[in-house]
Structure formats: C-alpha cells, structure tokens
Specification:
444 residues, mainly beta, eleven-stranded antiparallel sheet, six-stranded mixed sheet, 9% helix, DUF4270 family protein
C-alpha cells in the first residue's frame, strides 16, 4: 500500500516542469535520453491524444467460500440502497461428542461466533440475527460457492437474538439454539456412534445452518471468523451424582471449505443493481458520470481507450515516457474512511473477460498509490503507472480497442462490502484522467 499526503493541488504545468527536470524517476526501461538531449529541439509534452471511457459491470463469479470470514448483516448503502449478507455453514458429525444417557443431563446448546474485526454500517443500532435450519443439500459442481449461491432453509428459525454489535476482535457472539434441535443431535450421536457411515447419515439429516438478520432493524454487516476453532457449537450439560459435575463440550460447526456468503441487493430500481450478468456494461454517461466498485456484490469497472489508435500516428515522432492513470473518488458520496487503501489493475477483453493482472517492470503485481488531499479533499486520487502497458499495446499488430483495463479490490472479495465510487472522465467535478507524457524526437 502506498499512501501519499497532499495538501497542495498541483497544476499540470508544474508536473511537466518536474518531469523535464527529473525524468530519471520514470519506470526503468521506458525512457532513453541521450547526452545531447539538452540543447536540442527534443521536448516532452503532456498530450490529450488518448481519452478514457469508464463503465461498471457485475462479475458473475465472485467466490465467497473458503474466505475464512462469515459476513452477516444488512446495510443501507449511499448509492446502492439496502444490501443483505447471509452466511451458510454445513455441519459435520461431532466426533468429539460423547453422551452418558444414564447420568448426563442436557442444559443448553449455543452457537458461538467470533468477530474478525471487519464491519461496515451503523454499529450503534441494535442488530437481530436468526439461525435457520437448511433443508436443501448444500453442494457445488466445481467445489466453489459464489456470492449469488443460496439454498432453501426453514422459514421458522431455530434461534434468534437481538444484541448490540461489538465487532472488535476478542469478543464473542453467543446465540442459544432451540433445545429440540440440540436433543436431536444428541439422539443421533447415541444411535449412530458405532455406525460406519455415520458422517454421511449425519449430513443427510443435518444439512446446515443459515445465518440471516432482520433487515428492518439491523444496520450493519459484521465479519466473523469461520474456521473450525472459531465458529463452534458449545454444549452445556451436567452429570448427576454425589456432586453435580458441569460439562462443556466445544465442537466445530464444519470446516472453512463449506462455509460461504450470499450477497443480495434489495433495491432493483438502482441502475447498478440491474446489472445481471458480466457482459452488460453501464457506461459512466448513463450513471451520473460515475462508476462503482464493490466487493461482495461483484461490481467492478473497466477503462477503455477508444482513441488509442491515435498514438500510432505519433510513433514516428517520439514515444511515451510516462503514462499515469488517475482514478478520482467521488468525495461527495465517500469519506476518507471509506477509501480502500489499494486497488489492482488488470487486462480485460470483450465480454468483460479478465485475462490477468498487470505487472511492473520487476514482475510484481501492479497496485495503486493513494494520494489524499486531507484539507480540501478535492485532489484525492489513486494513481497507476501504465507506461509499460501502453507502450506494449502499441507493439500489437492490430491495436484492438475492445481490449481495456479492469479495476478491482485485492482482498476479501467474497467476504466484505468494501467499495469505491469513482468519477468518470465525463464528470464535471474532478474527473478521472489519463496523463500522457510524450517525448518528441529532434527530427532535424
């Protein structure tokens, strides 16, 4: 992550002066200045030959399993309206649970969730969670579960709890499950403990749990660790004898491979929420000159270069010494706290197929630097050095205008609601832009 502090708004003329004096700071391999540069007719200029076009699309393959984080809750997003996150767990046979049917007495069964520190929304308002019993076999053809996957569950919950959210690490959320559900598990263990196929039979009877919330009262979404030792059942019981013996058994619900999150946007009148497949583009001009990026919901945005072929006409006159892509957040709807620390940039083709992520000259994944204007917030932006990318595009036999760039978030894609609203090139207020510095040869 690279965060730069900026309190002064720099003009393009200043940037050009800095560039001419300090061109050695450009990406290695992109600039080749000879000793006779000074005093010649060669010069570097900021040109507007290539424009950018920004659009939003929705990825239909956001993997939300094996993230290690269960996201539960409901938020009201400034742009996207109501959004709900549910979490599904499958259940495994409790091998470590033994029961003395003659002396042991059941007291209660709790499900225990441990916050992992991630949250979004209003945690001042109380939240209400429900635990439902899944009645459909949770299965996947490719071994993955996606943010759009869901499975049916009983409408009547086996547990509910209203509480004040405490999303910090080190806390526990405990929800007491119905006694009848707990006793059903105990009865199964007693009946099948010596059965060779008890694990399969258990999954047939106990297909899983779905954690939901009351969307009328809950105003936050909170992440919980979903590993075997984090999301657990806690059985309380005692044995009757000369003295009462208290017993506590802690058992994992299931492994991380069979927990996943389901994301749903309630307000279908919002244009971004109407994107229902990867191939559909919502251009900035049709969305208040903005594009939106969000984990969970799968919103991403692409950047195209409709006039990139104009550079071919300049190839004989010089070459690109620096290409800086600046993504400008819409600070009218975002706050500094909302800003993701890092963005990634990738290669995307027609039908929004992502080919891979860009690398720098050292082979490292190319990430953004974030410049924050803390005083006025008018010149806050993410910056990418795409010099190598554009120069390589000009070496193509045919420069394809259907090939562009995609902007994504690097982490927690299937387990968070991290987001970014960016101004498009057509925005009248602080638009995103491509700064293209071109070195013109001395042809005389």
């Amino acid at each position: 992550m690279h965060i730069l502090h900026q309190n002064t708004i720099y003009k393009h003329t200043a940037l050009i002066s800095i560039l001419i004096v300090g061109l050695a700071s450009c990406q290695q391999g992109e600039l080749d200045l000879r000793d006779d540069f000074i005093g010649s007719d060669s010069y570097t200029a900021l040109i507007d030959t290539v424009t950018i076009q920004m659009s939003t699309f929705r990825s239909d393959s956001v993997v939300s399993s094996s993230t290690g984080s269960a996201l539960i809750g409901h938020i009201h997003h400034k742009l996207l309206g109501g959004q709900e996150a549910k979490s599904y767990f499958t259940m495994s046979y409790p091998n470590d649970l033994s029961w003395d049917t003659e002396k042991q007495v059941f007291d209660s069964l709790l499900v225990v969730l441990k916050p992992n520190g991630y949250y979004i929304g209003d945690t001042i308002a109380d939240a209400e969670y429900h635990v439902h019993r899944v009645n459909e076999t949770i299965s996947s053809d490719d071994g993955y579960y996606y943010s759009t996957n869901s499975f049916s569950y009983d409408e009547m919950p086996i547990a509910s709890k209203s509480f004040h959210p405490s999303p910090g690490k080190g806390n526990e959320l405990t929800i007491r499950l119905n006694d009848s559900f707990a006793k059903e598990i105990i009865d199964f263990v007693n009946e099948y403990k010596n059965h060779t196929d008890k694990s399969t039979l258990f999954k047939e009877q106990f297909k899983g749990l779905a954690f939901t919330c009351d969307t009328n009262t809950t105003r936050s979404a909170i992440g919980y660790s979903s590993g075997d030792e984090s999301a657990i059942f806690r059985f309380y019981s005692h044995k009757v004898g000369i003295e009462k013996e208290e017993i506590v058994d802690e058992l994992g619900i299931d492994g991380t491979l069979t927990q996943f999150n389901h994301f749903y946007s309630n307000d279908k009148t919002v244009k971004y929420n109407q994107l229902d497949n990867r191939k559909t583009l919502l251009r900035e001009q049709n969305a208040d000159n903005m594009t939106v990026l969000q984990n969970g919901s799968g919103l991403q945005f692409r950047i195209d270069f409709p006039t990139i072929n104009n550079l071919l006409e300049l190839k004989a006159q010089g070459h690109i010494v620096k290409a800086e892509l600046r993504i400008k957040p819409n600070m009218e709807v975002m706050t500094i706290k909302d800003l993701p620390p890092t963005l990634y940039i990738g290669d995307i083709y027609r039908a929004n197929e992502i080919w891979g992520y860009l690398s720098d000259s050292n082979g490292n994944t190319l990430s953004s630097s974030l410049v924050i204007d803390y005083i006025y917030q008018e010149d806050t932006y993410y910056t990418f050095d795409i010099t190598y990318y554009l120069n390589s595009r000009l070496l193509e036999p045919v420069v394809d205008i259907d090939r562009g760039l995609v902007i994504t978030l690097p982490d927690n894609v299937g387990s968070s609601y991290s987001w970014l609203a960016a101004n498009g090139k057509t925005s009248g207020n602080n638009p995103s832009e491509l700064l293209l510095y071109y070195y013109y040869y001395d042809t005389e």
